[in-house]
Amino acid sequence: MIKLGFLINFIHMTAFIQEIKREVKNWWLFTVIGILLLIAGFYTISNPLASYLGLSVFFGGLIFVNGIMELSFAFGNRHRLHHWGWTLSAGILDVVLGFVLLLYPSLSMSVLPFIVGFYILLLGASLCSYAFQLKNLDVKGWGWILAGGILTVLFGLSMIFNPVIGIATIVGWTAFAFIVAGVVNIIFSMQLKKIRDHMNP
């Protein structure tokens, strides 16, 4: 009976390890996303007086590329990743939103804050989802990612419910939200890489 119990535990542990190995496939995509978000944040800070037309095109391209990255990660892990549907949904919404911004760059000033705010809100929700995925894998540091996601969500909500606070303020909040989300995405990718390196010494 002891040997049987040990064998069952060994099988369960082996299956768990294999699941973790599959879980971290394409971890580097989040590094790329994080770098793109950091570039977007610093670009926005360095060009605070850029027109909303320029911001619309820039955000549209960034959001579209981010969506493609998320879709690639979701499909690459669809049979292994817990709650991969959230990542898939976020990727689809990003692609659609980015396409709309690229197709209609002349969106009025009254509409763009809602779109950017919604995107930042979605970005924060995705970060929260990633944090809970790390929590399911018993990875330390998931709380920081969750905190970053919540902070990003709050920025998104602030932009949605205060669309007339002024262009300069909106641009500043957008830049800060992108920087926070970029840092958190890079931290998340490094956590996934640590898991992969630990499983494959």
UniProtKB/TrEMBL annotation:
Mind listing the UniProt keywords for this protein, alphabetically? Membrane, Transmembrane, Transmembrane helix
**InterPro entries, per database record:** Acid_resist_chaperone_HdeD, DUF308_memb
Q: Does the keyword Transmembrane helix apply?
A: yes
- Chain ranges passing through the membrane: 27-46, 52-73, 85-105, 111-132, 144-161, 167-188
Kindly state one GO CC term assigned in the UniProt record: plasma membrane
What domain of life is recorded for the organism? Bacteria
Q: Where is the signal peptide?
A: none
Protein name listed in UniProt = HdeD family acid-resistance protein
**Organism of this sequence:** Sphingobacterium sp. (strain 21)
Recite the lineage of the species: Bacteria, Pseudomonadati, Bacteroidota, Sphingobacteriia, Sphingobacteriales
